[in-house]
TrEMBL record:
Protein name per Swiss-Prot or TrEMBL: Protein CNPPD1
Pfam families reported in the protein's UniProt record: Cyclin_N
Organism from which the protein derives: Mytilus edulis
Ranges where the Cyclin N-terminal domain occurs: 71-165
Source species, domain of life: Eukaryota
GO CC terms: cyclin-dependent protein kinase holoenzyme complex; nucleus
Annotated GO MF terms: cyclin-dependent protein serine/threonine kinase regulator activity; protein kinase binding
Family: Belongs to the CNPPD1 family.
Length: 222
Protein backbone atom coordinates (compact mmCIF):
# COMPACT_ATOMS: atom_id res chain seq x y z
CA UNK A 1 0.00 0.00 0.00
CA UNK A 2 1.48 3.34 -1.06
CA UNK A 3 1.88 6.05 1.53
CA UNK A 4 -0.11 9.17 0.73
CA UNK A 5 2.17 12.09 1.60
CA UNK A 6 0.62 15.47 2.22
CA UNK A 7 2.25 17.96 -0.17
CA UNK A 8 2.42 20.65 2.51
CA UNK A 9 2.65 20.75 6.30
CA UNK A 10 -0.51 20.89 8.36
CA UNK A 11 -1.81 23.02 11.20
CA UNK A 12 0.08 26.21 11.90
CA UNK A 13 3.17 25.30 9.87
CA UNK A 14 3.99 27.31 6.76
CA UNK A 15 2.92 25.79 3.47
CA UNK A 16 5.36 25.30 0.63
CA UNK A 17 5.99 27.74 -2.20
CA UNK A 18 4.19 25.83 -4.92
CA UNK A 19 5.28 25.18 -8.48
CA UNK A 20 3.31 23.08 -10.98
CA UNK A 21 4.16 19.74 -9.36
CA UNK A 22 3.22 21.15 -5.95
CA UNK A 23 -0.07 22.46 -7.37
CA UNK A 24 -0.88 19.00 -8.72
CA UNK A 25 -0.06 17.48 -5.34
CA UNK A 26 -2.26 20.02 -3.55
CA UNK A 27 -5.11 19.27 -5.98
CA UNK A 28 -4.73 15.59 -5.14
CA UNK A 29 -4.77 16.44 -1.44
CA UNK A 30 -8.03 18.37 -1.88
CA UNK A 31 -9.54 15.47 -3.79
CA UNK A 32 -8.80 13.07 -0.98
CA UNK A 33 -9.24 15.12 2.20
CA UNK A 34 -12.18 17.29 1.12
CA UNK A 35 -14.06 14.40 -0.51
CA UNK A 36 -14.19 15.85 -3.99
CA UNK A 37 -13.94 12.47 -5.68
CA UNK A 38 -12.81 12.96 -9.27
CA UNK A 39 -12.01 16.68 -9.64
CA UNK A 40 -14.11 17.98 -12.56
CA UNK A 41 -12.86 20.55 -15.04
CA UNK A 42 -15.57 22.91 -13.83
CA UNK A 43 -14.96 22.68 -10.12
CA UNK A 44 -17.78 22.09 -7.67
CA UNK A 45 -17.43 21.73 -3.92
CA UNK A 46 -17.78 18.39 -2.22
CA UNK A 47 -20.91 17.80 -0.16
CA UNK A 48 -18.99 17.92 3.17
CA UNK A 49 -17.31 21.20 2.20
CA UNK A 50 -20.63 22.61 0.98
CA UNK A 51 -22.26 21.80 4.32
CA UNK A 52 -19.44 23.52 6.23
CA UNK A 53 -19.65 26.59 4.00
CA UNK A 54 -23.43 26.87 4.45
CA UNK A 55 -23.12 26.56 8.23
CA UNK A 56 -20.28 29.09 8.44
CA UNK A 57 -21.90 31.78 6.30
CA UNK A 58 -25.28 31.39 7.99
CA UNK A 59 -23.58 31.81 11.35
CA UNK A 60 -21.54 34.84 10.27
CA UNK A 61 -24.50 36.62 8.63
CA UNK A 62 -27.56 35.56 10.65
CA UNK A 63 -30.11 37.68 8.77
CA UNK A 64 -32.99 35.42 7.73
CA UNK A 65 -33.66 37.16 4.41
CA UNK A 66 -31.44 35.84 1.62
CA UNK A 67 -30.30 32.80 3.57
CA UNK A 68 -27.66 30.65 1.89
CA UNK A 69 -28.32 26.97 1.17
CA UNK A 70 -26.54 23.98 -0.39
CA UNK A 71 -28.10 24.56 -3.80
CA UNK A 72 -26.89 28.15 -3.96
CA UNK A 73 -23.32 27.19 -2.98
CA UNK A 74 -23.19 24.37 -5.55
CA UNK A 75 -24.71 26.50 -8.32
CA UNK A 76 -22.46 29.51 -7.70
CA UNK A 77 -19.40 27.27 -7.45
CA UNK A 78 -20.23 25.58 -10.74
CA UNK A 79 -20.98 28.79 -12.63
CA UNK A 80 -17.93 30.67 -11.33
CA UNK A 81 -15.42 27.79 -11.14
CA UNK A 82 -14.83 28.30 -7.40
CA UNK A 83 -11.79 26.21 -6.49
CA UNK A 84 -11.16 24.66 -3.05
CA UNK A 85 -8.46 27.30 -2.42
CA UNK A 86 -10.91 30.08 -3.26
CA UNK A 87 -13.44 28.56 -0.88
CA UNK A 88 -10.85 28.57 1.93
CA UNK A 89 -9.90 32.18 1.24
CA UNK A 90 -13.54 33.28 1.29
CA UNK A 91 -14.05 31.60 4.65
CA UNK A 92 -10.97 33.35 6.03
CA UNK A 93 -12.36 36.71 4.91
CA UNK A 94 -15.63 36.11 6.77
CA UNK A 95 -13.68 35.28 9.92
CA UNK A 96 -11.78 38.56 9.59
CA UNK A 97 -15.01 40.48 9.20
CA UNK A 98 -16.40 38.94 12.38
CA UNK A 99 -13.52 40.56 14.26
CA UNK A 100 -12.95 43.70 12.22
CA UNK A 101 -16.48 44.75 11.29
CA UNK A 102 -19.30 42.72 12.90
CA UNK A 103 -21.78 45.49 12.01
CA UNK A 104 -21.26 44.73 8.33
CA UNK A 105 -22.22 41.09 8.93
CA UNK A 106 -25.50 42.17 10.51
CA UNK A 107 -26.43 44.12 7.39
CA UNK A 108 -25.64 41.61 4.65
CA UNK A 109 -27.43 38.35 3.85
CA UNK A 110 -25.49 35.08 4.07
CA UNK A 111 -26.01 34.42 0.34
CA UNK A 112 -24.62 37.85 -0.60
CA UNK A 113 -21.74 37.39 1.85
CA UNK A 114 -20.86 34.07 0.25
CA UNK A 115 -21.03 35.53 -3.23
CA UNK A 116 -18.89 38.59 -2.57
CA UNK A 117 -16.37 36.68 -0.40
CA UNK A 118 -15.82 34.11 -3.14
CA UNK A 119 -15.62 36.78 -5.82
CA UNK A 120 -12.99 38.77 -3.92
CA UNK A 121 -11.00 35.62 -3.10
CA UNK A 122 -11.07 34.58 -6.75
CA UNK A 123 -10.05 38.03 -7.99
CA UNK A 124 -7.21 38.21 -5.46
CA UNK A 125 -5.87 34.74 -6.29
CA UNK A 126 -6.00 34.89 -10.07
CA UNK A 127 -4.26 37.59 -12.08
CA UNK A 128 -5.85 39.12 -15.13
CA UNK A 129 -5.68 36.89 -18.17
CA UNK A 130 -5.65 33.45 -16.54
CA UNK A 131 -8.35 30.89 -17.29
CA UNK A 132 -9.82 30.94 -13.79
CA UNK A 133 -10.57 34.65 -13.84
CA UNK A 134 -14.26 35.55 -13.80
CA UNK A 135 -15.31 39.17 -14.28
CA UNK A 136 -17.92 41.06 -12.26
CA UNK A 137 -20.53 40.87 -15.01
CA UNK A 138 -20.15 37.09 -15.14
CA UNK A 139 -20.56 36.84 -11.37
CA UNK A 140 -23.67 39.03 -11.67
CA UNK A 141 -25.14 36.85 -14.43
CA UNK A 142 -24.52 33.69 -12.42
CA UNK A 143 -26.84 34.89 -9.62
CA UNK A 144 -29.23 36.98 -11.74
CA UNK A 145 -28.06 40.34 -10.41
CA UNK A 146 -27.14 43.61 -12.10
CA UNK A 147 -23.44 44.29 -12.54
CA UNK A 148 -23.76 47.58 -10.67
CA UNK A 149 -25.16 45.68 -7.66
CA UNK A 150 -22.08 43.47 -7.68
CA UNK A 151 -19.82 46.49 -8.05
CA UNK A 152 -21.49 48.16 -5.05
CA UNK A 153 -21.18 44.98 -2.98
CA UNK A 154 -17.50 44.85 -3.89
CA UNK A 155 -16.90 48.42 -2.73
CA UNK A 156 -18.74 47.83 0.55
CA UNK A 157 -16.89 44.56 1.18
CA UNK A 158 -13.48 46.10 0.59
CA UNK A 159 -14.32 48.99 2.89
CA UNK A 160 -15.59 46.63 5.62
CA UNK A 161 -12.48 44.44 5.48
CA UNK A 162 -10.21 47.48 5.14
CA UNK A 163 -8.84 46.18 1.82
CA UNK A 164 -7.02 43.40 3.69
CA UNK A 165 -7.29 40.46 1.28
CA UNK A 166 -3.83 38.95 1.70
CA UNK A 167 -3.73 35.53 3.37
CA UNK A 168 -0.45 34.10 4.59
CA UNK A 169 0.55 30.48 3.99
CA UNK A 170 0.34 29.87 7.71
CA UNK A 171 -3.21 31.22 8.02
CA UNK A 172 -4.37 29.30 4.95
CA UNK A 173 -2.76 26.09 6.18
CA UNK A 174 -4.37 26.38 9.60
CA UNK A 175 -7.89 26.87 8.21
CA UNK A 176 -7.41 24.08 5.68
CA UNK A 177 -6.22 21.72 8.38
CA UNK A 178 -9.19 22.54 10.62
CA UNK A 179 -11.64 21.88 7.80
CA UNK A 180 -9.89 18.67 6.77
CA UNK A 181 -9.97 17.45 10.38
CA UNK A 182 -13.67 18.21 10.74
CA UNK A 183 -14.53 16.45 7.48
CA UNK A 184 -12.43 13.40 8.35
CA UNK A 185 -13.95 13.08 11.81
CA UNK A 186 -17.55 13.65 10.72
CA UNK A 187 -17.43 11.30 7.75
CA UNK A 188 -15.69 8.60 9.72
CA UNK A 189 -18.32 8.80 12.47
CA UNK A 190 -21.18 8.84 9.95
CA UNK A 191 -19.83 5.74 8.13
CA UNK A 192 -18.77 3.90 11.26
CA UNK A 193 -15.21 3.50 9.95
CA UNK A 194 -12.33 5.72 8.86
CA UNK A 195 -10.45 5.71 5.57
CA UNK A 196 -6.67 5.75 5.43
CA UNK A 197 -6.80 9.43 4.45
CA UNK A 198 -9.14 10.21 7.36
CA UNK A 199 -6.69 8.66 9.81
CA UNK A 200 -3.76 10.45 8.21
CA UNK A 201 -5.53 13.79 8.60
CA UNK A 202 -6.45 13.08 12.21
CA UNK A 203 -2.90 11.95 13.02
CA UNK A 204 -1.73 15.53 12.41
CA UNK A 205 -4.08 16.88 15.07
CA UNK A 206 -2.85 16.82 18.67
CA UNK A 207 -6.34 15.96 19.96
CA UNK A 208 -6.65 12.81 17.86
CA UNK A 209 -3.10 11.61 17.18
CA UNK A 210 -2.94 9.32 20.28
CA UNK A 211 -6.12 7.55 19.14
CA UNK A 212 -4.78 7.18 15.61
CA UNK A 213 -1.54 5.67 16.94
CA UNK A 214 -3.54 3.07 18.88
CA UNK A 215 -5.58 2.23 15.81
CA UNK A 216 -2.39 1.94 13.74
CA UNK A 217 -0.90 -0.54 16.21
CA UNK A 218 -4.00 -2.71 15.99
CA UNK A 219 -3.94 -2.40 12.17
CA UNK A 220 -0.34 -3.56 11.82
CA UNK A 221 -0.82 -6.41 14.29
CA UNK A 222 -3.64 -7.96 12.27
Amino acid sequence: MSYFRFPCPLGESDMLDYHKDDHDALTERFRKTLYYGKMPNTERPSLPLTDIAVELFQERAPRKLGKIDQYMVAAASRENCISPSTMMMGMIYTNRLRTKNPEYLQQISSSDLFLISMMMASKFMYDEGVDEEVFNDEWADSVDMETEEINQMEREFLSAIDWNLFVSDKEFGKVLHNIETRIALQNGIDRGWFTYTDLLVLSHDAKFSPLVRKISKVWYNI
